[in-house]
Amino acid sequence: MTPSESRAIVTLCLMAAYVDGDKHERERDEVKRIAEGLAQAGQDINLQSLYQDVLMKRVSLADQSTALTSPEARQLAYEMAVCVCDADGAQSQPEQLFLNDLRSSLGLDARATQAFDTQAAAIASAPLATTAAAGAATTAPPAVDSAELDQAILNAAILNGALELLPETLSTMAIIPLQMKLVYRIGKAQGYELDSGHVKDFIATVGVGLTSQYLEQAGRKLLGGLLGKVGGGLLRGLGNQAVSSGMSFATTYALGHVAKRYYAGGRTLSTQMLKEAYASVTQEAQGLQSRYLPAMQEKARTLNPASVLAMVRGGA
Questions:
Q1: Coil vs helix vs strand at 192
Q2: Closest by CA position to 258, among listed 204, 215, 193, 210
Q3: Which residue, among 232, 210, 237, 209, has the nearest Cα to 221 in the 3D structure?
């Protein structure tokens, strides 16, 4: 894929991230941070300038679509834009209109994208496996097996690290709902029944954006020439690029352990304490990443799009 095509795809993803005016300001700030951070991986692409172009609406769907000359690049651009819109849940009306316009601009037939749209929507709307009252503590909290929870957190971190190795866009998108399921499971173990709104609030409070997290994960893979590849592209050289920062492993590990502290302590930690704890555990997790990279690679070999979708839609 050429630098101009990569630039066009990132531009379309940023346009998708900003099309919904209802996004919280902290999420919009995270998107800006990610765009600036990706500049280090963009090589010849001036992503900071690109971000300003998107913000000031100096770019158009038509211009970016024209830059995508291959069918594969056009399909990848559409898939990534869908994932950006779905990252924080069901699509809003502005996002739906944007994706319809994008599909038309890219010359993609709605029937050709239907299967992907359906799978992405299934991941975005996957339940947390409960319909119980949100936020209510049970009258008799169950006995908590701390070692079992620690193992569940590690397993989830390894799984999401493995998903970061896979080239499919839906695999990248699946990381967020699996993180949400982990937080839900931890809350439940401590006697709390949480809905998706509470879980999203917790994740946002510690400083992790949903849309921005997908942008960062997928953007690094795209700019590294890894996203969208199949077959021989899997696991070949990915250890140095996609997982070099321990991104998904570290984020999942930190979310799990901070959630464990938070719900075990009766949800009394302040926002600042949560942010500080998350930053500290993230640093710890980054130090563990190389130790567990072989486990991530081995796990990645067992995964395929069907199994990923089943995990997201299954129970926590």
A1: strand
A2: 204
A3: 237
pLDDT in tens, 79-136: 999 999 998 887 889 999 999 999 999 999 888 899 999 999 989 888 886 444 445 5
How far apart CA 83 and CA 306 sit, in angstroms, is 17
Q: Which of 313, 163, 128 is nearest to 251 (CA)?
A: 163
Residues 239-246: contacts with CB within 8 Å, 24+ apart? Answer: 239/293, 239/297, 242/164, 242/165, 243/161, 243/164, 243/165, 243/289, 243/293, 243/296, 245/286, 245/289, 246/161, 246/285, 246/286, 246/288, 246/289, 246/290
Three-class SS state of 57 = coil
Contact 196, 89 (CB under 8 A): yes
Q: CB atoms < 10 A from the CB of 269, how many?
A: 18
What Cα–Cα distance (Å) separates residue 242 from each residue in 137, 223, 228, 237, 238?
39, 10, 13, 9, 5
CB count in 10 Å sphere of residue 84: 28
The whole model's pTM is what?
0.84
* Structure token pair of residue 40: 């280090």
**Going by C-beta distance under 8 Å and a sequence separation of 6 or more, which residues neighbour residue 280?**
none
Residue 237, token pair as written in the block: 């050289």
Per-residue DSSP letter, 141: P
Tell me the average pLDDT across 41-55. Answer: 70
* CB neighbour list of residue 269: distance below 8 Å, 6 or more residues apart: 261, 262, 277
φ/ψ region of 231 (left if φ > 0, alpha if ψ in -120 to 50, else beta) reads left
| Helices and strands, number each (H, E), in the chain | 15, 2
**pLDDT tens digits, 28-46:** 666 666 666 665 554 556 6
